[in-house]
Amino acid sequence: MSQVSPDLSVQIGPVTFENPIFTASGTWGYGLEYTDIAPPGPLGGVVTKTLTMEPRLGNTQPRVREQPHGLLNSIGLENVGINAFLGEKLPRLRFLNASVIVSLAGRDEDEFATLIQRLAQFPGWAGVELNLSCPNVARGGLDFGQDPVRIERITALARAALPADRSLWVKLTPNVSSIGDLAKAAEQGGAHAVTCINTVLGVEVNLQERRPVFPRAVAGYSGPAILPIALAKVLETARAVSIPVVGVGGIGSIDDALAFFVVGASAVQVGTSLFPEPDLANRMVEQFSARLTELGAASPRELRWEGLAG
Amino acid sequence: MPGRGLGMARVLANTGVARDTVVLTMAIDLPTQARPGQFAMVHPMRTDCLLARPFSILDHRDGELDILIKVAGKGSASMAVARPGDEMRLFGPLGQSFDAPRLLDGPSIFVAGGVGVVPLHWLARDLHSRGRSTPHCIFGGRTPADLPTAVLTQYEPGWELWVEDGATESLETGRVTHGLQRALEATPGAAVATCGPTPMMKAVAAICEEADAPLWVCLEEQMGCGAGVCRACVIPSASGDRMCTVCKEGPVFAVSDIQFGAAVAS
Description:
A: alpha/beta; TIM Barrel; 8 helices; 16 strands; 30% helix; B: Elongation Factor Tu (Ef-tu), domain 3; disordered C terminus
């Protein structure tokens, strides 16, 4: 009996990606750091480390602290800046046939569009993901990301600046009472997809010294511990909007990834687990078809829970 | 970046060498020969340890790697009781080795504290056995029980040993920095390499600056990935205009290239 291999492709806005496995921003560098053991080409795409207009040095030490089932980080958006990315990184990603989603963070509402205009002068990228929800910077980040009105405005400005053949994703914070309202605002502003979720706020305490461990006190929590939280937020978001939802948070195996499709995701991003297993996303792409077939599904879309609409 | 391997390493032997300290000999085929100063990320393979841990490589023979483990937390504790046949995920070799001719050609003084002995011990043995130079090696531990004697005796010219407590006639009482000062007086113009606890390395750096001796440091820092990606283990460059990753641009640095121990403004 011949078996048709599952259809893994996913369309997000004007762009069709070969498969729905992406790397999450900040967890796989610029997609160029593991080319010897895990090339970016076979992935659905690489979401880059968040880029800003100017290079950023980031926060003071400590920057990461391992927890029993997760990781607290306070990196502070250290990055090379958009110009170095365009000059040094993007041409190499293009050469490697990587599908690239560029993560962007602006200092104010207008700067997101300015970053996109800069990017628009270069080939070799499929879309952008607006980082409206980084908890580890003094300005921006959560300021933008918790306010539906600002999300809609920034998304609309970004969409207006974006070339028509590129995909616009907006990454949302889970640290609000209604992520569905944020998602609706992004949809209203013209986003092609929303990415759920950014890190959950967390604190580690130094009991001896009676103070938080991180200089900024609150850090971003990620890793296996947040998988159920991410699934709940994706479920809520998928019910709130009709644009695709990109699920991210705590994925450590192919079955973790597939769980996101059940609760309404159209694509997933693998994040923190790439630190100990940098080839994890690549292995998941290889395992994807066989696991879908085992589950009797012809495409990831068939995994979607029937009760989701309710 | 070229020559790294990612795969399962099988434990061949677990040898106790000091209090809470073992040497794990592991079988793994790596694409290139590791060099002193380089390290491997090893995952303890328990579900409550998310990240792999960096371990400086003690020796690398054909298909076999030695790492020294001192129990510091749950990850190292479970690795320290690994048995032959156990498997752990290993990524390496990673980082830069000691490669400055000024240091390798000697005269040189190596100052190690605790597990910081690992890269310097391998480098000293390698230089001596190839007849390139014979570093004056100084090791400090808290007590005699902290000295990995079984390892240290592998360096033929011997290590000058210092303990803070419980000295016997073959050991000197005090800090390695005393030994360093004496050695620098005896060998003016010597280059210095150091690896160990940060306060010790800072004291070494102060002495070397005073004596105008060139210094290389092998840094230890909390790491998330070992590949320059997570940006956890950064230290500011000397000019302060960029961050250097200890895992990728280090762990060996000429101290003049970095702000050693400096705090960073965001």
